[in-house]
Amino acid sequence: MGVNKDRMLAGEWYLPDDPELAADNERRVELCAAYNTGGAGAAGRERILTELLGSLGKDVRIRPPFQCDYGRYISIGDRTFINFGAVLLDAAPITIGADVQIGPNVQLLTPTHELDTERRRAGWERAVPITIGDNVWLGGGVIVCPGVTIGENTVVGAGAVVTKDLPAGALAVGNPARVIRTLSPGTSAGGGCAPVTE
Description:
Strand 18 (170-173) and strand 19 form a beta hairpin. The protein contains four helices and 19 strands. By secondary structure, it is an alpha/beta fold. It has a seven-stranded mixed sheet, with no helix packed on it. It has a five-stranded parallel sheet with strand order 1-4-7-12-15, with no helix packed on it.
């Protein structure tokens, strides 16, 4: 394994313009293109996801189009549903639990770039893992930033930007996302997208 890939996987600063990482990325380009064209049928799409992703649970459904950085650093638990337009940038591991509901156009973004202008211009970046607990619901357009963990049974309202960890069993909304209440078992959240107000 090359030095930049080693650094990337260790969460250290690395240069993504690297032949080994480019080859890994090309693999992803081909598999995502095959998945997103929809011509493979259900069995073919499952086969593509099994090859693309690091770990795929039972009865996972991902509606195309779907994009990722590498795919192999994504783990998805049983019965999770990911709606249209998901972008999962997995330069660091992305772990999604079981029974998770992910709305359309959600972004899980592990990479971060240098604040120093010269190092950013030179291309330095690093990536920090994202973890989504079991039975989480991310409403449409939610953005989860690098290093965030969302606890199980939490609901994140549509359009929220999650910049910090969220506890289990919470309802969080806004930019940046903030917890507005604790959810108890049997709580009804309402309509077809996660609520943005109480």
